[in-house]
Write a structure and sequence with these properties.
alpha+beta, 5-stranded antiparallel sheet, 24 strands, 10% strand, disordered N terminus
């Protein structure tokens, strides 16, 4: 499509002074501009590309230097000092049919030559008028900065006065007054409080993602004290299970997964460290502002200890964990894609702002110009997130060893004990080989108990089809191999070995004898001065330990070598291959491999000798056992292993970046100074901080994001917490506080909570506790008909929202009911869903059925669908059936209970309540129908499976 004449005219002048120009405007150059260039521009371009134009074309001003420095839709078209690389000359020379300027009439040759000369001079231009027409607005399709700051999300946090309410008895917390005031405006009343069993179940799931136990239910129902719920909330907030639950909420936002996804789906081997960091941060109630700073710039924060340094570094996994196509061959595009993903993540997670729209143009609805997107992008472009290669590698950094001194002592002790154990086991082996035994030879020899370097056939290089067998006794390891006496000359087996020390070794070959064996099996030994072939008669019994035959002594250099090759060529009958062994010649004299038994000495008879050696062996066995026990105890006390962590680092080319016109990575516009969103920066403060040379600006970004003056961060986070406790946020669109998002239903309440949150040290636990002890949280979920008429979406929170549990809570509840995990301890806790390996290309079926969020995206709001496949899954899936059976077995193990009592226990375990009368009568009738035995596992499995399949199990009232 032919380009607009206005665009082309814009291109002509945009190139007159390049954004890359660093040339000094000399008097001669300025005079040339005034005489030769300005008249051409004024006559041919100002009509469409100046402040006086009726309608600006191509978003380009050519009546001032700042205009073409800034550029228009197509970016710069002049490279100062490089005429041949300037689009301007292409346009005015009419070399491109789609790029001709001016469109109606070609410039005279003299004017074209002058422009070429002017570009070669460095494009000097004295016009220093500021670009006042730009950046007072964020773009022709958006509102001005002044207008933008009037929008609710960008206003400074207010300190609203709690409203006056008519019902003085209902509120117990200030937040209740904000809720009640809105209800009273509509002549509505809050729902009655939930019953105690419902409230307890709600509290347990909201704080830990696990149900209460029958004992906890009984204790809470029996506690009539006014602070009963507060005690439960405090106990649950102190539980490690709290961090696992709320950490999973954060991982939804952090795009957490253990693989990259995509074609190669590369494993993030150390992603788990970020997951564990998040869980520990919530359990430790890390202030949210610090938590946010660590994830944006943890590697740049100061630390008082190695432990703190490791925490800070691990937090930056937030920026590294996105879904990236590391095999993309255009590395410039890959770098931009990573930067874009990081901008989206930071913008939506901490600011509730969708910035991606501004990658190609000014944001159409929010006051975010394209320049501000690339101000942000410059910060992340100054951050190195991968190492360039054919398939790029994500960055992993070493953690500091905070236990170095303890580790050195531990390693020293382990080496000492290991040496003692090796010596003791060696003596014990020698005793075993030297002691007469009445027991028959074992069918197989354990390669681990043989001296020397033993290589079994399972470590060999096998060519052709060999048959595994255990028919004949006397083999090494789990089996031996034979060639079935077919396809002779087509098969071979080569044994590699690692030689730890150069020297001479006796090479031994193991096989099982038999009449149908080959008599001349070619065995080739490769040593450091050549090779030698020995022929082995496998019809004869191996002389060493009944398993090995010596092939001779050879010298080998240190390293890994192919030592022995057994071939089937020139053989007619079965060839047997089992193992090889190398014995250092220095040890041959004392080697027990010859299996010789000491003769009685000094008149000692055979029985006395045997008794003495038996006693010595017993003593040595006790010593070996004691050393092993001590080593195991030492292993358990070992300090944590030092490892690597997914992270990022400062890029060696950190600096300001250029606008990408229409998002094109090679269509570059002007440089823009790194900085933040002007609309979220307090009036009077610059959104462009001073960034030290060589620094990315992430540290400054982290400080700006978490500044108490930032109007977004506290609002966004408090809203996320509210959403997890009420089923929806005060702002429904938790990740989008912009024009296209939802408006807050209670803006004053949001500001009240956000201000209080910051004033109380950014504590998540304090915020959650306050909300959970409010009357608003404790309301029942039964909807009043009048409220439904006036407020069908429950925007006013007249009652609690009935919520479906997340897939993790559904799955973990079954694991807990069956006894596989215990909330009171760490028993089986790694089976919890939060610790499941998460492959972006292979989400588990149950997760997929129950709306697990897309790990490629920031997901503050999980989808909640209701589809037949969910019911079918709970009715037919093998995991559910197995857990139902395991839970039934556990319930049957409760002694001294009759069917009615067991049924009560089952309902409390699965649903958190007693069975209703109708449920009880039906269940007891079902049990009776299945036989007289009250411990019928099949019948009880059916009961539990029915409870798992019912709505009450997977919904929270």
């Amino acid at each position: 499509m032919k380009q607009s004449i206005y665009v082309i005219c814009a291109l002509i002048v945009a190139g007159l002074v390049s954004i890359d120009s660093r040339a000094e405007d000399t008097a001669e150059g300025l005079a040339f501009f005034e005489k030769k260039i300005r008249p051409v521009l004024a006559q041919n371009c100002y009509k469409c590309h100046s402040a006086k134009a009726k309608k600006l074309k191509a978003e380009l001003y050519l009546d001032r230097k700042a205009g073409w420095v800034h550029g228009g839709e197509n970016g710069p078209v002049v490279m100062p000092g490089k005429p041949s690389q300037s689009q301007l000359l292409t346009a005015i020379r009419y070399k491109d049919n789609d790029l001709r300027m001016p469109p109606n009439k070609k410039l005279p040759k003299r004017a074209i030559d002058d422009i070429e000369k002017w570009i070669a001079m460095g494009a000097p231009d004295p016009r220093d008028e500021p670009l006042n027409v730009a950046r007072q607005t964020s773009g022709p399709k958006s509102k001005s900065l002044v207008e933008g700051r009037k929008f609710w999300a960008y206003r400074p946090l207010a300190n609203p006065k709690p409203p006056v309410v008519n019902d003085k008895t209902w509120p117990v917390d200030t937040l209740d007054r904000f809720i009640l005031a809105k209800l009273e405006e509509k002549q509505l009343k809050p729902s009655p409080p939930a019953d105690k069993a419902t409230l307890l179940r709600r509290a347990h799931f909201d704080l830990t993602g696990l149900p209460p136990t029958p004992a906890q239910i009984d204790a809470f129902l029996a506690d009539d004290s006014p602070d009963a719920l507060a005690l439960v909330v405090d106990e649950l907030l102190d539980s490690p299970r709290y961090g696992e639950r709320w950490g999973r909420h954060w991982l939804d936002i952090a795009r957490y997964a253990d693989t990259t996804g995509g074609g190669r789906n590369i494993k993030y081997a150390n992603a788990f460290r970020y997951r564990d960091y998040v869980i520990e941060s919530y359990n430790g109630d890390k202030p949210f502002n610090r938590f946010a700073q660590e994830q944006i710039a943890g590697d740049l924060l100061s630390s008082a200890s190695d432990e703190e340094h490791n925490e800070n570094l691990t937090g930056t996994g937030f920026l590294a964990l996105g879904a990236h196509n590391y095999e993309l061959q255009d590395k410039a595009l890959l770098r931009m894609e990573v930067v874009d993903e990081q901008i989206i993540a930071v913008g939506r997670t901490f600011l509730g702002t969708i910035m991606a729209c501004a990658r190609c143009h000014d944001h159409p609805t929010d006051p975010i110009p394209i320049e501000e997107y690339y101000s942000f992008a410059g910060i992340f472009r100054g951050t190195s997130s991968f190492v360039t290669a054919n398939v790029a590698n994500f960055i992993e950094r070493d953690l500091r060893d905070e236990f170095a001194e303890v580790r050195n002592k531990h390693d020293h002790e382990m080496k000492k004990l290991g040496k003692e154990l090796k010596e003791a086991e060696g003596k014990l082996k020698a005793m075993e080989n030297e002691t007469p035994s009445s027991k028959p030879n074992p069918k197989s020899l354990d390669p681990k108990k043989l001296e020397g370097i033993v290589v079994d056939d399972d470590a060999a290089i096998i060519v052709g089809e060999w048959i595994s067998s255990t028919h004949q006794a006397g083999y090494v390891g789990k089996r031996y191999l034979h060639d079935a006496a077919i396809r002779k000359g087509k098969k071979s087996i080569t044994f590699p070995a690692v030689i730890l020390k150069s020297g001479r070794y006796e090479v031994q070959f193991s096989y099982t004898m038999g009449a149908n064996r080959a008599k001349k099996v070619p065995v080739t030994i490769y040593h450091d001065v050549g090779e030698e072939t020995v022929f082995v008669d496998q019809t004869k019994r191996p002389p060493i330990l009944g398993a090995f035959v010596s092939l001779g002594d050879f010298h080998f250099e240190k390293g890994k070598w192919d030592i022995v090759k057994i071939s089937t060529g020139a053989t007619a009958q079965h060839v047997i291959v089992d193992a090889i062994r190398l014995l250092p010649k220095a040890n041959q004299k004392a080697s027990p491999a010859l299996a010789k038994i000491d003769e009685p000495k000094g008149g000692e008879d055979k029985k006395a000798l045997a008794d003495r050696k038996k006693a010595e062996m017993k003593e040595m066995e006790i010593l070996v056992g004691a050393l092993k026990k001590k080593i195991n105890a030492e292993k358990k006390s070992a300090p944590p292993a030092v490892g690597k962590v997914m992270s990022i680092r400062e890029h060696e080319e950190a600096g300001d970046w250029r606008v990408h016109v229409r998002g094109g990575i090679r269509n570059l516009g002007p440089y823009v100074k790194r900085g933040f969103l002007a609309v979220a920066t307090p009036d009077g403060q610059s959104p462009q901080p001073t960034i030290p040379k060589g620094a990315s600006g992430r540290l400054q970004l982290s400080e700006w994001v978490t500044s108490p003056e930032n109007p977004l961060v506290a609002r966004v986070y408090v809203n996320r917490v509210w959403r997890h406790l009420f089923g929806r946020g005060i702002v429904r669109s938790t990740d989008n506080f912009g024009e296209t998002g939802d408006r807050p239903t209670h803006p004053e309440l949001l500001d009240h909570l956000a201000g209080q949150f910051m004033a109380e040290g950014w504590s998540s636990k304090k915020l959650i506790r306050q909300i959970m002890l409010s009357k608003a949280y404790q309301m029942g979920s039964v909807e009043d008909p009048v409220a439904f008429t006036k407020d069908s979406e429950n925007d006013l929170f007249s009652h609690q929202n009935r919520r479906r549990l997340e897939v993790e809570a559904i799955r973990d509840s079954m694991l807990m009911a069956s006894g596989k995990i215990s909330p009171a301890s760490d028993k089986g806790i790694k089976q919890r869903s939060v610790f499941e390996n998460l492959d972006r290309n292979s989400i588990p079926d149950m997760f997929d059925v129950f709306d697990f969020p897309n790990p490629n995206l920031v997901s503050g709001n999980r989808n909640t669908s209701t589809v037949p496949t969910q019911a079918l899954f709970m009715m037919n899936n093998g995991f559910v059936l197995n857990e139902a059976k395991a839970t039934a077995s556990r319930i049957l193990a409760e002694k001294g209970l009759d069917d009615a009592q067991r049924l009560s226990f089952a309902y409390k375990t699965c649903l958190g309540r007693e069975p209703r009368d109708r449920e009880k009568s039906l269940a007891l009738a079902y049990l009776k129908k299945h036989g007289e035995k009250s411990d019928n596992l099949e019948a009880w499995s059916g009961i539990i499976h029915g409870l798992y399949a019912c709505l009450d199990f997977r919904y929270l009232n």
